[in-house]
Specification:
The protein is mainly beta. Helices cover 3% and strands 56% of the residues. Strand 1 and strand 2 form a beta hairpin.
Length: 136
């Protein structure tokens, strides 16, 4: 079981891997994606993910979720999961809903796993995001 204390602080993304039927199939924003997630003692969180080449995108083009995404809101810990109650996001259908992540502690790192989703084709997809705590 995890606690809030296991998550509080600032974390940098080490890796983000997509899985199909339990097998790695790629990196949604490239192998060198960048990201930051922050959990506060007050129960707030914010996360930001982007491709490394995000700054090279055309200035007049809106950022799509496969290039850059961010969200924030309250969070709570239940068992081995952290639930992000989203109130701001660059993905409109996330707003007002929970994003549930299974938490796996790995030494000083934390692995957040999305809930597996099965498509109409019968394939199951999930994402594994490995985060490294930013030291003071």
């Amino acid at each position: 079981m995890i606690t809030r204390d296991d998550l509080i602080g600032c974390w940098h993304l080490k890796s983000w891997t997509s899985l199909k039927n339990g097998e790695p199939v790629g990196y949604p924003m490239g192998e060198d994606a960048k990201g930051q997630i922050i959990y506060t003692t007050e129960g707030r969180m914010s996360g930001f993910l982007m491709r490394t080449d995000f700054a090279d995108q055309p200035r007049d083009k809106a950022a799509s979720p496969d290039i850059c995404l961010a969200y924030g809101g309250n969070y709570r810990v239940e068992g081995d999961e952290v639930i992000h109650d989203v109130d701001v996001a660059t993905v409109p259908y996330w707003i007002g809903g929970p994003l549930i992540r299974k938490v796996v502690l790995q030494g000083e790192n934390v692995l957040l796993k999305t809930k597996p989703e099965t498509t109409s084709s019968g394939n199951t997809y999930e994402h594994h995001l490995l985060w490294e705590r930013v030291s003071a």
